[in-house]
Amino acid sequence: MKKLLFYRLPKRLLDIVVSIVALVVLSPIFLIIALWIKFSEGTSHVFYSQDRVGQGGKHFKIYKFQSMVDNADEILKSNPELYRKFVDNGYKLPTKEDPRITKIGAILRRTSLDELPQFVNTLIGNMSIIGPRPVVEKELVEYGSPERIKKFLSVKPGVFGLWQASGRSNIGYPERAQIELDYVDRANLGLDFKIMFLTVIAIFKGDGAY
Predict the structure, then answer these.
(1) Half-sphere exposure of residue 148: CA atoms within 13 angstroms, side-chain side
(2) How far is residue 30 from each of residues 20, 38, 43, 196, measured CA to CA in Å?
């Protein structure tokens, strides 16, 4: 009850306020990016949604600006060697090696601008500004035992998180899983603000951005 009053409630209030302010203030950037994608080659969609596992194991759709070609999944799976590298590398590929990424998508990913639509997720309530990054169902195996998976899913996933602040894609599994679980154990407002500050620095430096 004490944690609910002194952490979860103010955290949710901050999520709502920050999301509304971000969606309003950044609306011109949303429009520019949307038009940029719309009139570019490689994709017919402006936004991308994907099924992720959220708090309590509940599935939800995460929103991003489209950074891949339309037939991205088919392209990746058609190359078994590349797909294996994708899985072994924590379900990511360096942008230069990823045939799915559009030219605009590479810029959006490097600057994390593709993540901006997730402020809609935080406003809805299936994500928080700060928390462990949400994963697809098959990635849960990287978190180990059922107890560790349950801990990971005990909090809302975040737009930004300790893993991103620590180096993003430069840090793969199993270290990534441990970092995310450490956040769950230590979660408080002070840590959340620190993560936000460190993530902004990491984005500007371009660390691990792919």
Answers:
(1) 15
(2) 14, 12, 17, 21
Gap between the Cα atoms of 110 and 59, Å rounded: 27
CA distance 191 to 166: 13
- Cis link prior to 174 (omega < 30° from 0)? yes
CA dist 21 → 97, 116, 164 (Å): 36, 12, 22
- Give the integer Cα–Cα distance in Å for 202 and 118: 18
- Per the CB < 8 A criterion, the answer to whether 145 and 183 are in contact is no
pLDDT, tens digit, 9 for 90 and up, residues 153-171: 999 999 999 998 887 767 8
- Asked whether the beta carbons of 134 and 58 are under 8 A apart, the reply is no
Residue 182 identity (one-letter amino acid)? D
Report pTM.
0.88
Under the banding of pLDDT at 50, 70 and 90, the label for residue 44 is confident
* pLDDT-based confidence at residue 191 (cuts at 50, 70, 90): very high
Residue with tokens 């593709």: 114
